[in-house]
Specification:
- This is Glycosyltransferase, group 1 family protein.
- Its EC number is 2.4.-.-.
- Pfam families: Glyco_transf_4 (PF13439), Glycos_transf_1 (PF00534).
- The structure is a single chain.
- This protein is α/β, with parallel strands linked by helices.
- The chain folds into 2 domains: 150 residues, Glycogen Phosphorylase B (Rossmann fold, 3-Layer(aba) Sandwich), CATH 3.40.50.2000; 169 residues, Rossmann fold (3-Layer(aba) Sandwich), CATH 3.40.50.2000.
- It is built from 14 helices and 12 strands.
- The strands form 2 sheets. Strands 2-1-3-4-5-6 form a 6-stranded parallel sheet, with helices on both faces.
- Helix 2 crosses helix 14.
- The longest helix is centred in the first third of the chain and has 16 residues.
- The radius of gyration is 20 Å and the shape is globular.
- It starts with a strand and ends with a helix.
């Protein structure tokens, strides 16, 4: 059983969460001794497709035409396409139709969470859908105080500075407008957002937010994973104010580094992330401000260890085992 792992346009998506999934899948399969190829011209038994471009659909259709099995990985939904780029809300109904065309070209579908599975089922898709986390490479994101010190030195923060970090594209859905507003409300804390999107592709209000000049607000842009993990190790809080996700790989990265984490209280996280039990949640600017102060001033109990346990459950070795079961299942269809 040999698997084709395919992601279209990696040069365009490598800085996004979807771009990270390919490397996660490679490691997950290697940890479980599952043969794979990245070349569609190679011989393979199963095509595992991560993207929804025209070439991705072509490969899925061609594979099935030649008697091969197709596992389509549903990373995107209409819901998380909205409030992203210019005209995204206008185009979202057409995007949904295209997603359905792509996803139903597979023998089965994999998606990161039970929440995204419910969304896809709501589209009327009849293929079997499996919820499997994107996973996390625990060894790479291990907490390391030396890396934390490197982060503070690199970005000019003192040992006394209390630093709130976030990671994501410059899009409204990620909560970037709220992040900037929180920086305005709490000048005593430092706020740093990692990630980048060309400003010509997003609404003017996003560009205005990114250009905001505050002494405690920083937008260093996209950084590679080895630098990003130093931030996870050295910041005081990872803030994830996103309004819609199918999972959120950066959230798992923060949990894996034993970082304090505060997320928006949205349906995706119901059932596996519980406020005050393994994470902290907020649902308004006021509650975000309150929780940020409570966490940074150590007025709230630490959720670091129970949060880390969530990441451990999603270690790539475990994800590989789940994918192997799905591959074996689809080969029998």
């Amino acid at each position: 059983m040999k698997v084709l792992l395919y992601s279209e346009g990696m040069s365009l998506i490598k800085k996004s969460g979807i771009g990270k999934t390919l490397s996660h899948q490679i490691k997950a399969l290697e940890k479980n001794n599952i043969p794979y190829t990245l070349d569609p011209k190679d011989d393979f038994d199963i095509a595992h497709i991560n993207t929804v471009g025209p070439n991705s659909l072509h490969i899925a259709q061609t594979a099935r035409k030649h008697g091969k099995k197709v596992v389509y990985h549903a990373h995107s939904t209409e819901e998380d396409f909205r409030n992203s780029f210019i005209f995204s809300n206008l185009l979202s109904p057409q995007f949904k139709k295209w997603l359905i065309t792509c996803y139903t070209s597979g023998d089965c579908i994999v998606t990161p969470t039970p929440y995204s599975k419910r969304i896809l089922e709501g589209y009327g898709i009849e293929q079997e859908i499996f919820a499997v986390s994107n996973g996390i490479e625990l060894e790479f994101f291990e907490q390391d105080p030396i890396k934390g010190l490197t982060f503070r030195q690199r970005f000019g923060f003192s040992a006394e500075d209390k630093v709130v970090m976030a990671v994501g594209l410059y899009i409204e859905r990620k909560g970037i407008l709220d992040f900037v507003e929180l920086a305005k409300r709490m000048p005593e804390y430092k706020f740093i957002w990692f990630g980048h999107t060309p400003l010509y592709s997003v609404p003017a209000k996003i560009g205005k937010a990114v250009r905001t000049k505050l002494p405690n607000l920083f937008f260093p842009g996209y950084v590679e994973s080895d630098i990003l993990r130093t931030a996870y190790c050295g910041a005081n809080l990872f803030l994830f104010p996103t309004y819609e996700e199918t999972e959120g790989i950066v959230l798992l990265e923060a949990l894996a580094t034993k970082q304090n984490v505060l997320i928006r209280d949205i349906p995706i996280y119901e059932g596996w992330l519980e406020d005050g039990k393994n994470i902290y949640k907020a649902d308004s600017l006021e509650s975000f401000e309150q929780k940020i102060r409570g966490i940074l001033e150590q007025e709230l109990p630490s959720m670091i260890e129970p949060g880390y346990a969530v990441a451990v459950e999603r270690d790539l070795a475990n994800i590989g085992k789940q994918l192997k079961q799905i591959y074996e299942h689809v080969m029998e269809l």
